[in-house]
Amino acid sequence: MKHIAIVTVLVALLTIVTNYFLLSVGLLPVEASTQATIIDKLFNTHFFIISFLFSLISVFMIYSLIVFRNKKGQDEDGKFVTGSTKLEILWTIIPLATVISFSYLGAKSLAETRIINPQAMTINVTASQWAWSFEYPDFEITSNTLYLPVDNQVNLQMTSLDVIHSFWVPEFRVKQDVLPGENLVKELRFTPSIIGDYTLMCAELCGGAHAYMNSPVKVVSEADFQSWVDLESKADDLNPVQKGEKLVKNNGCIGCHTLDGSASVGPTWLGLSGSEKSLMDGEKIIVDDKYLMSSILNPNQDIVQNFSPNIMPSIYADLFSKEELEDIIAFINSLH
Ligand code: CUA
Fold this sequence. Notes:
By secondary structure, the chain is an alpha+beta fold. The protein has eight helices and twelve strands. Strand 6 (165-168) and strand 7 (175-178) form a beta hairpin. The structure holds dinuclear copper ion. Dinuclear copper ion binds next to loops.
């Protein structure tokens, strides 16, 4: 009885210490959405159970090793134990009850994170190798940065042009796979609660530049959101180079092509126009508008040495109009 009392006290102490440690090392980023608070409550309950189980096992083990070790001159066999029905029933029922109560808590929290606000702002999200694009149907704006007004629920309608991607902003906690296919639009709702800059990451291995498939997320005040909308809506009177710049930034081209001459997955665009390149078959070509156009439309043709095998997807013929492609080429030509 004395041993049980000591072990109980030690388990309680170690549980408190371990739990305090887990809560204070900063395992979770800031809670920047209403949903994050709900999910973190569940995380914290898990941390407590983890601390308790860790303490229960290690205290019993270490206490037994030290207190019940073979004393000097003690060389008879230990007591033969056949088992304990009482213990077996106990250690079946307790974990079962724990798991069932966690499934209840999990389902309840999931339902809470999915409460629908009918006033939510809809944003159409398109994922592709390797970029995110955000379309605001209410304002006829397309952006590569996800602008969100604080304390308003957003309703993301998400689809993919090629393979499976996954929408994940750690500070918002919620995560949703994005699937290809017209009828497979996935919905994700959350309410950002802290003004600040975050990063959207792709959380599903989706090919060569998966690790770079990030997009900035800006949670701003209602007034700042309105001025961003006003600014973006005035974008009609841009010249072709400016239009092209906007297109390549909104469609993720610069995820693979740098504008400053540094190396990346695809050729840099700085000084690309007019430069001489060697193709895979040894033929030398001068990069002109015609070559740029055919490389965007048929990326698998006429590949420049060092960029084989080609990983640029063949989706841009469908994605851009002829006029937009000309704007993009005008922008590439302007980079010297
Ligand atoms: Cu998209 Cu990983």
